[in-house]
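for the writeup, i need someone to sanity check this before i put it in the appendix. the sequnce is what the collaborator sent (i think, or maybe the updated version? ugh). structure was predicted straight from it, no edits. if anything looks off just tell me and ill rerun, i have time this weekend
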Amino acid sequence: MTGFLHQLRLLVLGETRALPLGVAAAVLGAALVRELAGPEGWWQDAGGLVLLALVLAALLLSLRSNT
């Protein structure tokens, strides 16, 4: 558990590029999907969960790349 906290602290303090790049990719991907879904599409109901899943995936991948 201390290894996880150490890696998380390194990510929060900005000592890696993986997390900011992953979050940027998640936001850009979500914006693209939102445009494809249309103004009255499914994004209105599920968009927040999709964005959350993408950001969590970015966090997990950035933690994994630091080990």
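Residues 18 and 65 are 8 Å apart (CA to CA). The helical segments are 2-12, 18-37, 43-65.
thx in advance!!
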